[in-house]
UniProtKB/TrEMBL annotation:
Pfam families named among the record's database cross-references: Heme_oxygenase
PANTHER family recorded: HEME OXYGENASE (PTHR10720)
CDD domains in the record: HemeO
Record protein name field: Biliverdin-producing heme oxygenase
Alphabetically ordered keywords of this record: Heme, Iron, Metal-binding
This protein's record includes keyword Iron: yes
């Protein structure tokens, strides 16, 4: 039987392609959108990471979610620096979540509070993605809007504490493979991972509506 890390990757492959090829992502990576679209997207990420990272101290002691809680992954401080750069010092006052983002963050918070396995699904979907495709997004953003390489605006994508992402991803897959869950719970985690991708796609859809190419 395949390892859990292989199962979760292959089971979410279709959802990954859908997120990756969403109109908003394609337009953003194609350099067809203004920096305001990137800033709006970064704002939405703030709500998601706020939900992922506010309960980490409590979750660190959980047998299922605990091993995944790693300080070098934490993104909220980087997001806040990026938002200050993108929106200015008043960024917090003008911050607002799209309804799709609210739904995503609410689900993450619910898992963080009540279901460690579900939290792992959301953790995997975001952080392993950020360490992978996130690097492509950073490169594109730097070229399209002229951010300093790995500097303000794209710090979210820079994991200062992870000098070797490939090695870190291998270690992370080992954590997934060692997760103390039976087969049924693993199936539930995989289903939550697909739901997590769908929630991301929902945010992209809403952003695509807010930033249509030919209005
Ligand atoms: C245009 C946007 C995206 C691009 C170009 C992209 C690209 C990639 C690439 C190249 C990998 C493989 C890395 C490797 O095998 O080491 C990857 C993995 C991954 N991506 Fe994306 N991605 C994008 C969007 C997303 C989104 C929106 C999510 C979810 C929120 C996501 C979640 C993941 C996850 C969880 C993995 C790890 C798969 C695994 O090895 O288990 N990606 N991505």
């Amino acid at each position: 039987m395949d390892s859990f890390s292989t199962l979760i990757r292959t089971a979410s492959h279709e959802e990954h392609v859908e997120a990756e090829t969403s109109t908003f992502m394609s337009d953003m990576l194609g350099g067809r959108l203004g920096v305001d679209a990137f800033a709006r997207y970064t704002e939405q990420l703030w709500f998601v990471y706020e939900a992922l990272e506010t309960s980490v101290e409590r979750l660190a002691g959980d047998p299922v979610a605990g091993p995944f809680i790693r300080p070098e992954l934490m993104r909220l401080a980087s997001l806040e620096r990026d938002l200050e750069h993108l929106r200015g010092p008043g960024w917090r006052a003008s911050l607002s979540a799209l309804p799709a983002t609210r739904a995503y963050a609410d689900r993450v918070r619910e898992c963080a509070e009540r279901w460690p396995g579900g939290y792992v699904a959301h953790h995997y979907t975001r952080y392993l993605g950020d360490l992978s495709g996130g690097q492509i997004i950073r490169d594109k953003a730097e070229r399209t809007w002229g951010f300093a390489r790995k500097g303000d605006g794209v710090r979210f994508y820079v994991f200062e504490g992870i000098p070797n992402p490939a090695a870190f991803k291998r270690m992370y897959r080992g954590l997934l493979d060692a997760v103390p869950a039976d087969d049924l719970e693993k199936q539930r985690i995989i289903a939550e991972c697909k739901a997590a991708f769908a929630l991301n796609t929902g945010v992209f859809r809403a952003l695509g509506e807010e930033f249509p190419l030919s209005a």
